[in-house]
Amino acid sequence: MEHITKIETEWEKPDIEAELNEKAQPGLLPFDLFAIEHWDNKAPLEESPRQWEKLVREWKEKTLIERAPYNDAAYLDPPSPATEAQRAQIFRPNQTIFERNISIEANIGKPMTWLRTCYDPDLEEIYNELADKASAPRHGINLNGDRELDDKSRYAFEDWRDVYLRVPNILDFGQLSYGPSETSWDGLDLYYCSGLNDKEMMQEVEDLENEEAKPLYRAQLRIQAIVYLLDQEALEKKLVKMLWIDEHGEPVWDNWIDPDRVGLDSFTGLLMDGFMPSEIIGENNYVRGSFIMN
Hints:
disordered N terminus, globular, 2 domains, alpha/beta
């Protein structure tokens, strides 16, 4: 609790905003705009965490296409930063400077989040060994946009999905593109880069002759990002749990990785180079929960 108190006190200093990345200033990120738009300014300050949680859950329920106007407003025509009153009521009680700084990279490619939820002292050494072998982005963010969340006071979740309450912009993947439309007035529609609403890609999956492969390829259409989860089960097994998650932050596929056999640091590069999840998982590896061997 001392760590939390320290950070919240630092937020109250007038000059602490200088430590924020300019692009991470409150009011500039997609979820910020949604939160400001729907915030009940008449509610007392002590209700801030409850309001924040409610809005994060509403944000999670939206599709990427439904979030697109907020992403466009944030990145194509950057708004003015939040007012001092909005910072004090909405943002300071619910996020740290570090969490805001890593949020600005959440829209690059398929970023990977390295999330530690187990802080058992008996497993501390195992965690550090796994993180080192896997080239985890220790205490920050690497050049690929991958980031590590490792803080016992904040991330010791029973349900790892509570991480979205701390960093809701993990869900802003930027995995949309414009394509031809027969119904839109400007001739363009938004499409998922994963193929989720591409009729031809969806039909190709259903036409696969290999029935065992279909669940993976169906999941692939929904995958938008990756979470490396270091929970108690993973640490006890001395493995990394790889969760392939959809636009709502839910896992649609999962695999195990042994960092002694597989280099995790190259995965993001492969995805950014256009490799599909099925290519990374490996041919003929169609069982959910299997090991990635390549």
